[in-house]
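Appendix B. Chain record.
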Amino acid sequence: MTQERRQILLATAVMVAVFGLYETAKTLLFPAMEVVTSHVVSTVVVGVITIVTARYVIRQQLNLLRERELSNRRLREALGDAERSGSLLASIVASVAEGLVIIDRDSQVLLVNDAARSLLGISDRPVARLSEVSRDPQVHRAFSSVLSTGERAEARIEIWSGSGDAGDQRRVLHLHAAPLRLGEVQTDGVVGALIDITKLERLERVRQEFLANVSHELRTPLASITAYIETLLDGAIDDNENSLRFLHTIQRNAERMRDLVNDVAELSAIETGRVRLNMENLPLRRVVAEVFNGLAHRGARYGIHMRNLVDEDCTVAADPRRLEQILTNLVDNAIKFNRPGGELRITAATSDDGQYTLIRVRDTGPGIAPEHLPRVFERFYRVDKARSREAGGTGLGLAIVKHLARAHGGEAYVTSEPGSGCEFTVKLPVRPVAANTGKSSTAEFTGREVANG
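Structure tokens predicted for this chain:
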């Protein structure tokens, strides 16, 4: 029996009891009352009792209806919250960059998000078991360990895509597996998070190679300086003819070390610090002429004919000191790696879309073989190691050129054919500075923006 029915029956019983007490009292107290008067009075009393009882019953029913409506509203809100929470959870799982794979105790897949499908290369095909997600033994070993021990586990996974063995087809993932507990003790499944660490490992490898190269580049001139100093201290200082030659060699190696340290510091400032560029509209032909003047003695030593073919009205938006640094590195390379009595020329043109100025530095040297072209802008990469060291290069000049070009919002690249020389191109944006006021604009670039090379 429901609570409403019990209340109605109780109210009815109370009304009947009250009316019975009234009739008994009326008969005992007023035995001589006329029948008509008795009926009238009884009708009035019954009406009053009925009204009071009805008001009570109606009030109770309204309270019950309000409570039921409140309960229904709370239920609807709870269902809505649950639906929103489910949608929010689904949206979060789908949007996170880390891959998520969740399985139960029987290795049945409960969830695989889009990032995991992309990282593991399983596209949109349905998966039911862990073996359908990945066949890598490291993955299964990590998930099995969590299920058996209830402790977290980690694994390093290598995935190869395509048919070749090139390094760019290799992807390295870090798997972190943790127990899924719906209760307090039992492990009900495993949550696996996959993170792509390919770039991190590549950067670590670059860092290690960079340190090894710096150490090697410093060790060679330092050993030479040490050997010649020891020779001088052992008595060669009294040999005027040889001592002067030794001192010149020491000076040359010390300058080489100084240049290397300066280039390393410069590259580090560009890649990891904040590079402040004071942008100006610069007449490119005049900047090239200043660079030529600064390197004229070096060009004369090799008999290189330097030609400035930039138009008089050509301007470029750049930092004056940084643009001179870019051109100095390129011209210096074009002199050192040219043929004796050769030529280098600098030209400039506007890109097809009119957004960039293309500065081209071309030499008549032996050129670069195709297999070396993708790597010439890498730190310490040398096509001809013996000739580079003999010419005094640090191996960082082109890396600095590329990063400075990117700091300006441009790019640097090279084209070459063996035997026909090289052409280095620096692409810089044509961004006019505020309405011919001659004022410079300042821009700051973080290492993150330029350290992609």
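Further analysis of this model is presented in Appendix C.
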